[in-house]
Structure formats: structure tokens, C-alpha cells
Specification:
The protein is mainly beta. It is built from 1 helix and 9 strands. The protein has one domain: Jelly Rolls (Sandwich). 12% of the residues lie in helices and 47% in strands. Strands 1, 3, 6, 7 and 9 form a 5-stranded antiparallel beta sheet that branches.
Length: 140
């Protein structure tokens, strides 16, 4: 019995190690452009935070972060959009839907889940020669 309990505890601790939060950091280099679109992949988990920062700590730009559904047919789903000056943090949530696809606004919103969808990041209206850093924090 002790051996079984010890094995179960070790298994649960191993699972807990893989379930930790993770941050994905994606650079968006502006170069000589004022608008740049980048696509990133390999993100898995529940999005708990999106942080965007400019390399100079003071520039302003409009940032659009969305994911493209795996089927590639549907339009990108907006996660975070807005004007950013230096640094901005979003903690995005989404309403659940009923079987007809209508929002259930009377329920507590949940987080976006990503399972290998492509993440599309557009930075516009930015000064040239800056690098924007987009950090997506997920809970697995």
C-alpha cells in the first residue's frame, strides 16, 4: 500500500511540474516600417496575460493580438487590441456561448485557450527601428 501511495504522489508531483504557467516572448522588429505583421506558433494553454512593451520604453503604437483558428477558414479571433505607450498589459477573457453560439453574458467569463493556433501580432503607427516585445503568459 505504501508503495502504491508513493508512486501516486510521485506521479502527481510530475504532473504538477508540467502544469506550471509559462511565458512565450515574441519580438516584433519594426526596421524601416511603421506597420509590421508577424505570425507565431507553438502556444499551448489558457491565456492569462498579454504584455506588450517597446524597446525604448516610451514609443506609442497600436497593437493587435489575435489567434487564427486551426482550420484556417475562420477570421482571426481578437485577444487584445489597443494603443500602447511604452508598456501595456491585458488580462483577456471571453464569454461562454450556448449551443447556438450566442454569448452567455450571465456567466463568469473564461480565458482564451490556445492549442497550437497561430498567433498574429500587428504593430502599427510605430516609429521605425524599434522592437516591440509581446509576452503571452499561459497556464497549462
Amino acid at each position: 500500500m505504501r508503495k502504491l501511495l508513493l508512486t501516486a504522489c510521485v506521479g502527481l508531483m510530475t504532473c504538477a511540474c508540467f502544469a506550471e504557467p509559462r511565458a512565450y516572448v515574441f519580438p516584433v522588429s519594426m526596421g524601416t516600417n511603421t506597420t509590421v505583421t508577424n505570425t507565431f506558433s507553438g502556444i499551448f494553454g489558457k491565456v492569462v496575460e498579454v504584455q506588450v512593451a517597446c524597446s525604448d520604453g516610451s514609443s506609442t503604437g497600436t497593437v493587435y493580438v489575435a489567434y487564427v483558428p486551426v482550420d484556417g477558414i475562420n477570421s482571426p479571433v481578437n485577444i487584445a487590441t489597443g494603443e500602447v505607450t511604452a508598456v501595456k498589459v491585458w488580462r483577456p477573457t471571453v464569454d461562454s456561448t450556448d449551443i447556438a453560439g450566442a454569448d452567455l453574458t450571465d456567466e463568469t467569463p473564461g480565458c482564451f485557450y490556445l492549442a497550437s493556433e497561430n498567433l498574429r501580432v500587428i504593430v502599427g503607427g510605430s516609429p521605425t527601428n524599434k522592437t516591440w516585445k509581446v509576452t503571452i503568459k499561459v497556464d497549462r
